[in-house]
């Protein structure tokens, strides 16, 4: 393990040294990048004066994929502030910089400190990395106390075998925990207020502006490190938008409770060019690294005086969907173990289309060929690479271009934009689900394998078939137009010539055989069968033209998609 040149003179290390306690005689815990909390596991129970923690900064991990600079800044800032916060309460902190898998950083420390403990990793990639240490008795895995539900609750609620359904799991968890239940019945008479939560947003009530956060010297130093060491990574870095301390996490959560949650539910599915988040809380990037705990946010929301559809909508996301996807990822071994057999496995991590966009490969290949690059299921057969539009080349589709701009500006867009615009377009174009997953993993600050793979392979692209969702989530322009204001400033007209609608019908033309018997797709399949042959021919032409233009990095215009017959 080498020390980074940038760290030789480091304000962070100076501060850490100044706070350090005597490390002798401590019991050591490895705290990975996504467990930055002292309210769970040994850190919550053990006397800080007897506790040592190991924190690893890992350029090997950071360069495995073209991660957004904002994501690197978020993780590094929080990791360093967490180190200082723990040192300040008397915990001995060993901070190391790795140049390979995490086990290469921990092995020398095991020789020094003896066997270590950690809460079970959430990411499959980290689990695989650390398996040799666990099997050798050098690392003891403790239960991960950040989750809200158990394997038994998943099995009892969703079943032992697929298909698994979130609704069944969620209802079971509500019943067994008593959350939003009264006398055995769901509060408000039903388990879900999803149907009420589908308003579009016309500008009222005003969408709240997210808070900004101070750029303290620790964060500023991380910013310089990211710009120097990771200068080839994509995305804009805005340190004012990075919550980096425990106090910043509290600030964001207070803002979310006050400004977002009372109005969250009804506008949960709305999208707007005027607000990146609308009434979404934006806490996922902090929840997924442990800076905010699911149990805390759910408890706070249950105590909040807010309308029930908003309260239930938030609880369903955290206690329902977030837990559900983690269990599905766990029981399928990261989608390597599927009812249809073992899908192909990528030998190395994909770059999500970076190579195609930039015209040069992403980073030098690592000496380490493990962990692998993840499962590559594709139940609909999509194998086309992701178009450069996802990296910021203008597509001419205003909805897509606005959301992509949001993503490369801040590493964030809310879940409906992810599902109903970006995944929708990729699915309609038969893009490789793995390529899209790798792109989301790199581009979004809240993406880790256990959440991004279920969301993209499982839900967004239907790549694992119906094991966790009932149908592909595809739509034409009607849905986007109804739920957003993107179409108002688009060169295309959602009623007349928007390619999304043609792509939608061409999708069903290509996949009719596969999807014909799906009970949730009866309406579009019957409509397809009634669709005039001339329209069907033009649908297929539009699909080919859109695909050729976008994959060539070009911009679509109404002219180049005009129907020669009309
Ligand atoms: Fe998107 Fe079509 Fe609307 Fe343009 S018209 S914003 S491409 S849905």
Give an account of the 3D structure.
This protein is mainly alpha-helical and 566 residues long. The protein has 3 domains: 5-142, HUPs (Rossmann fold), CATH 3.40.50.620; 151-331, Serine Threonine Protein Phosphatase 5, Tetratricopeptide repeat (Alpha Horseshoe); 345-357 and 376-561, DNA Cyclobutane Dipyrimidine Photolyase, subunit A, domain 3 (Orthogonal Bundle), CATH 1.10.579.10. It is 46% helix and 6% strand. The chain contains 23 helices and 9 strands. It has helices at 5-8, 11-19, 41-45, 59-62, 69-88, 102-113, 124-135, 151-158, 166-177, 217-229, 246-264, 284-287, 294-303, 308-331, 354-358, 398-410, 415-428, 433-443, 449-460, 477-483, 499-515, 522-530, 533-551, and strands at residues 27-30, 51-57, 92-97, 116-119, 139-142, 181-182, 185-186, 345-346, 374-375. The protein has a 3-stranded parallel sheet, sandwiched between helices. Strands 4-5 form a two-stranded parallel sheet. It has a two-stranded antiparallel sheet with strand order 6-7. Strand 6 and strand 7 form a beta hairpin. 49% of the residues are buried. Bound molecules: iron/sulfur cluster. Iron/sulfur cluster binds at residues 397-399, 477, 480-481, 486-487, 490, 492, 494, 498, 500.
């Amino acid at each position: 393990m080498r020390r980074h040149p940038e760290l030789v003179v480091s304000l962070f290390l100076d501060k850490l040294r100044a706070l350090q306690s005597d490390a002798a005689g401590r019991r050591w815990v490895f705290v990975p990048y996504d467990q930055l909390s002292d309210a769970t596991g040994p850190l919550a129970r053990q006397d800080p004066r007897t506790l040592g923690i190991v924190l690893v900064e890992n350029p090997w991990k950071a360069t495995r994929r073209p991660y957004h600079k904002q994501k690197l800044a978020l993780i590094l800032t929080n990791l360093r502030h967490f180190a200082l916060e723990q040192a300040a309460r008397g915990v001995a902190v060993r901070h190391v910089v790795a140049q390979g898998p995490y086990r290469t950083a921990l092995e020398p420390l095991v020789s020094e400190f003896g066997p270590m403990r950690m809460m079970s990793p959430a990411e499959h990639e980290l689990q695989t990395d650390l398996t040799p240490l666990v099997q050798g008795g050098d690392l003891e895995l403790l239960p991960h106390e950040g989750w809200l539900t158990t394997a038994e609750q998943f099995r009892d609620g969703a079943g032992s075998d697929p298909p698994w359904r979130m609704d069944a799991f969620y209802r079971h968890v509500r019943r067994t925990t008593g959350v939003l239940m009264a006398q055995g019945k769901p509060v408000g008479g039903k388990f879900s207020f999803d149907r009420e939560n589908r308003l579009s947003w016309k500008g009222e009530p005003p969408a709240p502006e997210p808070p900004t956060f101070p750029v303290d010297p620790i964060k500023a130093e991380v910013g310089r490190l990211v710009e120097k060491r990771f200068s080839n990574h994509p995305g804009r870095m805005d340190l004012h938008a990075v919550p980096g301390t425990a106090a910043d996490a509290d600030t964001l959560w207070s803002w979310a409770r006050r400004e977002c949650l009372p109005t969250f539910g009804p506008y949960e599915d709305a999208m707007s060019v005027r607000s990146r988040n609308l009434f979404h809380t934006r806490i996922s990037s902090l929840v997924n690294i442990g800076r905010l705990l699911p149990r805390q946010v759910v408890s706070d929301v249950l105590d909040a005086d807010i309308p029930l559809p908003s309260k239930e909508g938030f609880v369903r996301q955290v206690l329902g969907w977030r837990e559900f996807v983690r269990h599905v990822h766990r029981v399928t071994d990261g989608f390597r173990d599927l009812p249809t057999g073992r899908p192909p496995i990528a030998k190395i991590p994909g770059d999500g289309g970076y190579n195609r966009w930039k015209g040069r490969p992403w980073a030098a290949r690592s000496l380490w060929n493990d962990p692998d690059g993840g499962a590559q299921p594709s139940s609909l057969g999509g194998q086309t690479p992701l178009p450069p539009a996802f990296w910021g080349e203008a597509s001419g589709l205003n909805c897509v271009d606005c959301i992509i701009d949001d993503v490369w500006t801040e590493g964030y867009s809310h879940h409906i934009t992810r599902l109903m615009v970006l995944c929708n377009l990729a699915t309609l174009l038969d893009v490789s689900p793995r390529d899209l997953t790798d792109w989301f993993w790199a581009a979004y600050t809240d993406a880790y394998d256990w959440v991004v793979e279920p969301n993209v392979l499982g839900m967004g692209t239907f790549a694992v078939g119906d094991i966790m969702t009932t149908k592909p989530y595809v739509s034409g322009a009607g849905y986007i137009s109804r739920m957003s204001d993107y179409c108002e400033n688009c060169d295309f007209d959602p009623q007349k010539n928007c390619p999304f609608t043609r792509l939608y019908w061409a999708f069903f033309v290509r996949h009719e055989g596969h999807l014909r018997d799906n009970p949730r797709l009866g309406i579009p399949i019957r409509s397809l069968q009634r669709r005039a042959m001339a329209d069907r021919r033009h649908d297929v032409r539009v699909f080919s033209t859109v695909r050729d233009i976008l994959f060539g990095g070009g911009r679509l215009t109404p002219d180049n998609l005009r129907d020669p017959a009309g």
